[in-house]
Design goal:
This protein is an alpha/beta fold. It contains 23 helices and 20 strands. The strands form 4 sheets. A 7-stranded mixed β-sheet has the order 2-13-12-3-10-9-4, with helices on both faces.
Length: 535
């Protein structure tokens, strides 16, 4: 399981939410997806980075509203309650993990004198923190506290669970969602993870995480129903006006390619000879290196160290790496070549789903700043536009394509491609120059002369200065209907929009234009929406 890095996005203070009963009432109402479910239960996952420090306050506030709250670790030695045989069978069937030789281990539940106990394969292993957490969680599901309420808070620590058990717990609550379960209408999962890190299954599966409480900040994601409504609107608009998908690193993530900041950290650690160090340690040392070697950029000369560290990007690191080693000997680009080859073998779900989108949505244009080769893999029917010469020769093609003939889908690779290293735009010097005239003309050529074309940024943070010359322009803003797709609203995109998209009172805000889905899930929903409206 890969861990996603979570950006800091201010929505509202978690601690303030818990200070008053009215705030928690608001939180419960935000969580309440049970109207359509009738008597079925809605599962609402919330990731928290520090339950322990606020546990007493949370428990007192939750119970003041008549909700139950149980903590998995407290149930390892048994919980007062009663087994429901049907639910017991479901729990035992789903809380199982694979073992060597094709075998599996699983939870076994029993009730003795009104106390529910859980073991793994009938054995209580009190030396394993993971097993104590999973057995405690299984037992607390049957706590008598749930019998007198319609809302249950269940707290468990995913940090101490083995990966296989963490996946099993998630499968269980996916199965529970939307079904009859102990008479409850809502189960709010408080999932402890250090630093607020979340796993892939938290983002893609349904139910998916709705809120993350991290460092006293509550980060919100939209419900599936709200996200799907946006996707349906995009599909409807695309049927008449075409569609532009602007793909960033988030598109490639499910194929195993790291996001830009992870690449940055790896490149920095390699460049400085500090394996295993984090960005907080690496950035000041890098600043010392560039200052000592008179490699500070003009804008960095008077910049405070804290600001230099905050603005650190992969492109800034590559400027020094390529200066020292040469483009053909760049360790980061060589490593990326190998990673790209691995990604082509893995190919996350976003890739085949995009290929299917290419075959069904007419007028589709793909723009990307990624220099991997996933989009054009597996014989995808694309017209790849990569080099400066490609862009110069493609203006006529794009104009012909926009007029409706059945031609290969244009793929505009603004930052080049890893198999053509000379085309790669990877340093701050290159991005500071802006897009070439040919690239700008090609982007302008894909705009619809009539209606505003749906223009969807997928996994893109808006941090590339070379793209700003066209993306910030009023000429583009007035001719596109923009959306941002990311599992969490990207703070860099939010900041960019605040500066360069002054939405009027009658327009949607940046948050209203966000679709909080992964690239995999967004493309799946887009295909479903397109199929539904064209059946």
């Amino acid at each position: 399981m890969r861990i996603a890095r979570i950006p800091r996005v201010f929505v509202r203070s978690w601690s303030v939410l818990l200070e008053t009963r009215s705030s928690l009432r608001l939180l419960l109402e935000l969580f309440d997806d049970s109207d359509e479910a009738g008597s079925a239960v809605s599962v609402i996952p919330v990731v928290v980075d520090d339950y322990t420090s606020q546990g007493e306050l949370i428990r007192a506030t939750v119970r003041s509203f008549g909700a139950s709250l149980v903590v998995a670790s407290s149930g390892a030695d048994g919980v007062r309650g009663a087994l429901d045989n049907a639910i017991r069978a479901r729990v035992e069937a789903l809380l199982r993990v694979p073992r060597a030789g094709g075998n599996s281990s699983g939870i076994v539940l029993r009730e003795d004198d009104g106390i529910v106990h859980a073991t793994v394969d009938g054995v209580s292993d009190f030396t394993s923190t993971s097993q104590r957490e999973i057995t405690g969680l299984a037992a607390t599901l049957f706590s008598e506290e749930h019998r007198v309420t319609d809302t249950a808070f269940i707290v468990y620590n995913e940090d101490v669970l083995d990966d296989e058990w963490a996946d099993a717990v998630w499968r269980l609550f996916r199965d529970v969602d939307g079904t009859q379960f102990l008479g409850l209408r809502r189960i709010i999962l408080l999932i402890e993870r250090s630093a607020g890190d979340i796993l892939d299954h938290h983002l893609d599966d349904e139910p998916s995480v709705r809120f993350l409480a991290r460092s006293s900040v509550l980060i919100e994601r939209k419900s599936r129903r709200v996200n799907v409504a946006h996707v349906r609107h995009i599909a409807q608009r695309a049927s008449g006006d075409g569609l532009v998908l602007f793909l960033g690193a988030g598109f490639s993530r499910s194929s195993g390619l790291p996001l830009g900041d992870i690449l940055r950290d790896e490149a920095l650690a390699d460049f400085l000879g500090m394996p295993g160090a984090g960005i907080a340690e690496l950035a000041p040392v890098f600043h010392e290196y560039v200052r000592a070697n008179e490699r500070l950029l003009e804008a960095e000369a008077e910049m405070p160290l804290s600001e230099f560290c905050r603005r650190m990007t992969l492109e800034r690191v590559l400027r020094e790496e390529i200066w020292r080693s040469g483009e053909n000997l760049s360790p980061t680009l060589s490593r990326f070549e190998r990673t790209n080859a691995d990604a082509l073998r893995l190919r996350g779900l976003a890739v085949p789903r995009l290929h299917e989108v290419m075959t069904v949505i007419p007028g589709l244009v793909i723009v990307t700043v990624n220099f991997d080769t996933l989009i054009e893999s597996d014989g995808a029917n694309v017209r790849k536009i990569v080099s400066g010469q490609d862009f110069e020769k493609s203006l006529g093609y794009l104009k012909d394509y926009s007029n409706g003939p059945s031609l290969p889908v244009p793929l505009l690779k603004l930052h080049g491609s890893i198999e053509q290293r000379r085309t790669i735009v990877a340093t701050v010097d290159q991005t500071a120059q802006g897009l070439s005239t040919a690239k700008e003309l090609c982007l302008q050529a894909i705009l619809n002369e009539g209606n505003r074309i749906p223009w969807v940024y997928v996994g893109y943070s808006m941090r590339d200065p070379d793209t700003w010359s066209i993306l910030q322009s009023r000429a583009l803003a007035d001719r596109v209907d923009e959306y941002w797709v990311s599992p969490l609203a990207d703070p860099n995109a939010r900041e960019w929009c605040t500066k360069h998209r002054q939405f009027g009172e009658s327009s949607q805000t940046f948050w209203q234009r966000c679709i909080t889905l992964t690239a995999d899930k967004f493309l799946e929903e887009l295909l479903l929406a397109w199929s539904a409206q064209n059946d």
